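Researcher: For the record, we're logging two predictions in this thread. I'll number them. Prediction 1 follows.
Model: Prediction 1, sequence and structure:
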Amino acid sequence: MVITSCASGGGKTDGPESSVGFAECAGKPNDCNGGKTKQGGTITYALGKDIKAWNTLSSAGNTVEYQHALFGVVPRAHHYYPDLSVQVNKDLLDSVEITSKDPMTVVYKIKKEAVWNDGTPVSAEDFIYTWQVQNSRDCPTCKAATTSGFKQANSVTGSDGGKTVTVVFSEPFPDWQAMFVPIYPGHIAKQHGSLADSFTWLEQNVPTYSAGPYKVEKYEPNFAVTLVRNEKWWGKPAPLDKVVFRIITKDSELVPAMRNREVNAIAPIPTPDLVTQVKQISEAHWYLGKSLSWEHFDLNLKNPFLADKALRQALFTAIDRKQIIAKTVGQYAPDTAPIGNHNFVPGMKAYQDLITKTGQGTGDVEKAKKILTDAGYKIENGKLITPKGETVPPLRMRHTTGNQLRKDSCELFANMVKPLGIEVQVVQTDDLGGTLTAGDFDVIIYAWVLTPLRIGGARQLWHSTSSSNYGKWVNTESDRLLDEAARTVGDDTKAHDLINRANDLMAQDAYVLPLFQRESFLSVSKQYTNLRPNPTNHGTVYNVGAWGLLDQAQ
């Protein structure tokens, strides 16, 4: 799962809203807006964040925007498609097969012609490096976004001249298809010191390497990342000469840029004004529907005041999620409702509402005050006093720069907890991954973008040892349940039950308050084809190598 910026949406209850170009996406999600392409041309795609980390295996680089900019550059063993299927990357691999269940063994066959753009073959060396920097054993100081699967893999070895990779697990791992998504070049890493040093180097330096249809031509900070065709690409040539990811961090600048043809495609978090304005652009298709992304408020338990469960429960009880929805996403998607789970969204078979029974998110200020007074707190002169007589200091609440929805949500949060004697200072960040990794927040709002593979993802987010557990919640019983779920192969019902039991513990502890399942919005100029909405974290760029200008002469 990654951080950000097939159900109902857009004010309807029977499917997504769209213009003619995306009209078939509900029934044919993998093929809609398809067409014959002509060679040449450039597309400019709006990217909502400037890139601060180039190693998307790292916790700092684990954002949707960073991954999307590099999707055509660094290879992946599997891709997540718009219909939520998980498919082998046939450009990279001839086959992937589970050859043994005890011990669990997965064998990858890399295409013989697959090479990095310096001519070095894509090989087991790349898989081994990618495993080593994420298994927490070979590089304990590497702050990997996830260790799921890599930690369970006991060995990764190469044969057949490095073109066959064999992964043997010490214990079963049900979400094994989420591994090696993506893969980084082991031979480049070796040139930059130890595992830890190379991991940092990859994070800090713009890629000159590529094993995809495109390579990075240039990066202009706070302006654009420009990709050009990779001349060493062995697959079907990309139709476009260039893909430019234009960095636009302010939502207010997106529609003018689209109208002026400064950008040809946008996929922002929608706002009422943005949706209304885009619908008026006659030269573009648009789509609005539910995504696998969910917004949430997180608390940092390293803050000694927020380490107290009663204070956390009171904060979340005072928050009125329905009011937040009504004043933000509900203005353009009125069917949006609060969600009650940290791992599954409505429509998924395993979804259970574990929040409603806690009373969190109801906006019940009097109940929140009672939670505090029962725990020994006092509200004096508009300030909250702890049982030890300390005044609870102002809380710093962070949101991403230029995101109006999140800014509004933070301001609503601040107003809702003010009657408890708690002051909230709203502070923006232009480096969400860095802010989360550093724990530079007391409260923060962001989104997790789910993958179709749900079992290992829960461990990635909420286990006490995971670097993606940014607020540092620790519960040994939850850890045990998540560990057991991550070992459960072939029995999804059991695994999902274990995850929900762990989730129930976290819900009671008031660590993260789920808000709502986010809308997915995409608008693309009508002259381009093969761009389509994808609710998974792989997004519209999952097939970036197929994007092109529509051949009107077909």
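Researcher: Logged. Prediction 2.
Model: Prediction 2, sequence and structure:
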Amino acid sequence: MRIQPRQQLLEIWAATVRASWRDDQWHWGGRDGSNSISDAEQLLCLLLPATRVPTFKIDNPNESASEMIRVLRPLGNATQIPRVLIRVLTEYFTKYTDESGTPVFSGGSYFEVHHEGGPPTSDQKRLDIVDSFAMSVTLSLATVGFLKVFRKTVTRSETHQEIDRLEQFASIRLSAAMVGLLRSFSVYPFDADSPEGQALIRTVNQGHLPERQVVAQLRSALEQTMASFREITIGSGQVLELDPADRLFECGWSWGVVKDAPAIKTEEPVGEQPKGLAQDAPYLYFTVIALDAIEDLFSERTRILGLLNEEQQRLARALQLRWELTRTYWAKVATFGEGPRWPLEDIPWRTTDQESSDYFTLLVTSLAVKGLVNDRGSDAELSRVGAVLTELANRARITRRTYEHDPALALHSPGVRFHLVGSDLLGGSQLSWVVSDFSALLLQRAAVIAKLLSDARHRDEVLDLADRTWDHLLLRRLAEGPGRSLWDQPDRVFNRVPLHYAEPSWYHTERVVHGLVNSAEILAHPPLRSERLAAMARDLLSEAEHLYDMELLSGTAEANPRLRESMYNIRVNLRRGREILQDKPGASMALALDVLLTLDEFEAARRDVTEAG
């Protein structure tokens, strides 16, 4: 892997501090202004590595690596850096809590409208959105985990009070974000002969079967999922309209709290639960964002550190049920059928509202992988998803050159636009949400698949894609200003993109950081074990051990001190070769070869002496 996550993350840390920390103050906002999502992304550029990559930990000053302290030096020394972060995090949680104590999850400056409409109204800018719920789950968990470790090193009472206050802020925001996600879940039923049903059938019917047969087979594949919807008893997504034999559906997360979503009864002080306005139908983008955040709720770190209280565990279980149902649904749809081609491989993916885009295919690859992992998918199946990513990289001109009037450029700038149906109910034009993170998201997905593969050849192919995507992303960094070395400057790669930016986008940078963190997790595991390599190493060790025993029998070890030392080293190498044979067969083979060369030198030396005599 050519990507060097440690070095690249250190550069991003240094650039983030340079762009954000001036005159002993944290400066919010970047290219897209300041809002609850962008500001969380800005903080996560520091906190994601600090809480997920062990060598980047800064929550224990006594264990912080000197290199980490060096790049964060503008914030202070090893003991001051955590306190500065506490101050900045407290500022964030305070900033996005209203006067009544209710956490704010508005999209703010990220909201856009169509060119024919006027700007978003002030009420529209305050609308809650799933992206903010998801980012808040990740940020709040990172904050609480950071505080739990740092608290053990603190002796001053005033610092303990600051920690307690921030932990309370983060816990309340976490609970409120979980409630928001529970109220944004959607199950959208439709008839097979409806426009949505026809679109879904065309997508999954890769074998050109009769429609009635496709519907029956799809319902059969989703039978357990449909039955499990009865277990949803709180929040949105409670549906009883899936029994008719010609009824199909989609499930996932809408863009915000869905219309008529019931309030969640909870003991947590989450404040007011606003009335929902969002269309009661899932959006692929927000579904993937929500699923990634929900995974953090039942991650190993969350369990080990005990980051959730009892009521939050109850809410997490309700979200986990939705996570399971959504993951299962999309994995079944993406890989439906017994033909030679999955629906996922029929690029681009077509949604039930008649939209198609390579970006949708990239989103569905994430959902398909989640399903394959849970169902113990084989390397061959994961490799098929990896092949889809390779094709997407080609089509998006990440690994291929562009041409004049290339439509693929729109994936990167201005990006893919989603219409937020229901956002105009407060007055004003219908809002839209624009995403242009195709390259960074591709890096994330490639790293995730590479981590799951157990076949060395298949993993190398996916890692090569990750490396080439990283080469592309490197060219898109800002080259000047305080935000240099951050993202995103697409005109440095695509000279036909008309926009040039002076400030960093935390939206893009956070996603690149996420991809690098995923890459670092690959390196945290031992290398893949090759059975063929292990068999060769075992044979070499057997030959080396036999020749070594022959040398012992001939009395070589008693000849002189130098030979005795050589024989001792051989014994040590043989023992080490056997110890690491299972985990590192390549290194074991290298040790065996070294022993064989040494023993052959002994024999050659004896032959020379004999011939000379």
